[in-house]
Amino acid sequence: MSQNHKKKEIKKLNRRSFVKTTGLATGALMASSTSMNAMGYVAGNKKLKLALVGCGGRGTGAAVQALTADPDVELVAMADAFQDRLDQSLTGIIEHFEGERKIDVKEKNRFVGFDAYSKAIDLADVVILTTPPGFRPQHFEYAISQDKHVFMEKPVATDPAGVRKVLKNAKIAKEKKLNVVVGLQRRYEKKYLALHKQIQEGTIGKIISGQVYWNSAGVWVRARQPQQTEMEYQMRNWYYFNWLCGDHILEQHIHNIDVANWFIGEYPASAQGMGGRQTRNGLDHGEIFDHHFVEFTYPSGAVVASQCRHQKGCFRRVDEAFQGTKGAILARKGLVTDLEGETLLNVGKEHDPNPYQVEHDLLFASIRNKGVIADAENGAKATLTAIMGRMATYSGQTITWEQALNSDLSLVPENPTWESKPPTIPDENGKYPIPMPGVTKFS
Amino acid sequence: MRALFLLFAHCICFNAIAQKSFEPYAQKISGTDIHISMVPIQGGNFTMGSTESEIGRSLDEGPTHNVEVAPFWMAQFEVTWDLYNLFIDREIDRHRDTNNLGNEVLLAVDAVSGATIPYIDMDHGMGIEGFPAINMTQLAASKFCEWLSAMTGNFYRLPTEAEWEYACRAGTQTAYSFGNDPMALEDYAWSKKNSDSTSHKVGLKKPNPWGLYDMHGNVAEWTLDQYEEKAYFNRKQHPVSNPFIKPIKTYPRSLRGGSWIDQAKQLRSASRKPSTKKWKLRDPQIPKSKWWHTDAPFIGFRIVRPYKTPTAEEQQIYWKEKHTN
């Protein structure tokens, strides 16, 4: 295929996804947005400067999606704790566009280190926040204070102190009419939106119970290298440290827990559960559990069983299921059934546009339209829900929403540097302290 | 039990070295109770492609031409998750069959690169136990073969398009290995019509005349070849011997057999499917994974073992990511 031909194809594709996703937006998310024509007009007018904060695989993917969403977005700055991650990311973005689009992040606008984020944010109109989640509250607060529109990945904090910071700034963002999209992409997926509509229309009655799952084999592990300081090791192998990651019940399972909150239409009143570390308990596995099972009770009386597991060789399922007074929903398959299990509707067979792209298409359309997408409050509350679950499994106690929200638990150090001591350090055998049900306290 | 197991392993080893019989066998994988049923496919000649009169054919299936294929074993079933996850997890590497090493393959198992563990569940909720592994790239399928070879000492690889079609046809020249009537597919294959939009456990339908299951449908199967629409036009000599279009780029590569998502005509013996970049659309990371297609729950693979073992250098060619040598 010739270069020109290819360019045309890409343009065609972009236009198509633009139209399609805007249709979805007006229907489902932004009832108050202005017309398509107005958007086209504004879009031609102003370059939007983009900064990427957190240059891992997901951040790099999000940057590509942002650049794809709107032809007048320019990547002007990047920030990461590590030089090599930043370099790889930039190479990845350039390779992705294969010369179709000029990517030119000036060397002086590539910032490395713990304080890199603010320098990159300063240079942009829109920022992507995709570092490990422990840093999100600080980065989000700074971005909002500087009047930036935000795309940020879930979860948005790892502790209640961070959640409160995000909630506070979610409010400020709204007042300032800044757009904030949170990467809980099921909320941007056609199938889930269609199921949610069925619930609102009363097809399955009132939801009384649900089961949500992220049972998988686990994720990557980055082994300790001899030259690394403890801080550098934890930053590289961040998935296994709570101040950075928040445990997989938060980092991954938040997607499914958020669907429960969304479909039931409330946040849980309390959580109790159990969990532990049975198979993933080596020296490179830090301090997080490999399984959690939590029972969330909602103010309406609905009860949701939430299970997440990172163990190899076991039953796998990533899904959500709900039972109502008149019917039931199987989310992954996109099935709505009656109480006998007969299919009433199957929304799982339709073509669903890439939700990761939709998030950015809607974000930039909304910026152009002077609309306001305000995902941050729910992002914070979804984060808190999963943290509440984690507090329940770590302590073995029932944790209420208020207890979680007002908890003193604060995991993330104020201003970490490469020299500072991380909040958790290994003993002489290289083992980290592990939460212990019945002993670990959250009060 | 342990003694019995060792004895069994020894027998395979002895057979393989001493006379290399050409019989069906069960490939054990040390450290597991899993075995792979391998069916001997006698070498021979066949007519590759479909004639213009075949209903549902595409232009890329012609012209028909005579092809000669050397003998090989082919797995009776598509590779299942039970098997594929051993490669993903890489926890049984230390159990490799040291008795048989060097028989056909001498390769340090540590030297075989491992696929990344995906962020999402790659079975898409369709099922694990007994279900075909899906969503892997051709590179990943080839690396599985390399890993399996290192583990067992026998040389495994993906089939070429020619080997695949020869085995699928099993001596027939009809649209399907059971005849021309797509209505009869119900007994032999999972297609769009009867799959209920999901893959199914391997081996539930009738096998083809040579005892291979799910050659038509269930999951489309990776072959070794670059997909070239006009490949058959270039095959002038008669017969063409063991054709293999060595890939020089990642897309498109060729898959065969059709899948649960496809209509009857795409399940025909001669039907060819090119791979596409779109199968990674939903990979949220950049660079996108070398190991996974996030949007291709309809592709899988099965393995072959040539009767005549290639040299160590040749072996590498079949496992390589890019065939630029």
From TrEMBL, chain A:
Domain Gfo/Idh/MocA-like oxidoreductase N-terminal: 49-173
GFO/IDH/MocA-like oxidoreductase domain boundaries: 192-328
Coiled coil: none
Region (Disordered): 417-443
InterPro entries xref list: Gfo/Idh/MocA-like_OxRdtase_N, Gfo/Idh/MocA_oxidrdct_glycsds, GFO_IDH_MocA-like_dom, NAD(P)-bd_dom_sf, TAT_signal
GO MF, one annotated term: nucleotide binding
UniProt name for this protein: Dehydrogenase
